[in-house]
Amino acid sequence: SSDTVEIPKLLDIENPESYLVVGDDEIKFDRYLTPEEEAERTEREKLEAEKRRLEMADNARERALVTMMHGKLEIRPEDELQKDLEKPEFMLTKAENQWNEDELKLAKEFEKKKDRLRLCVDTTA
Question: Distance between CA 17 and CA 13 in Å, rounded?
């Protein structure tokens, strides 16, 4: 007939020899590597690193991402708070009564940015 017979699996209690077998996942420390195995592993890691470096050199998208956005695709508010807000040069060198109209506009924009940044810091803290 076409009926298939399922073969039951033995439980651990039915197979006492299974208690004597130790799996790699049960060992809590790193395996000892002989000097030859260590040299082989080091060489393999070097080859993999070189392969990744060559792939990065060929991948314009990844290179651009790292160059322009430090490897991140999205801008997080925490990153924006890390940016330093620098005063315009004229605010450091001239007295306030010597500023012209353009410099006054730039000073107002700077103050707005500073207030917005302070508000962001206050809301995240």
Answer: 9
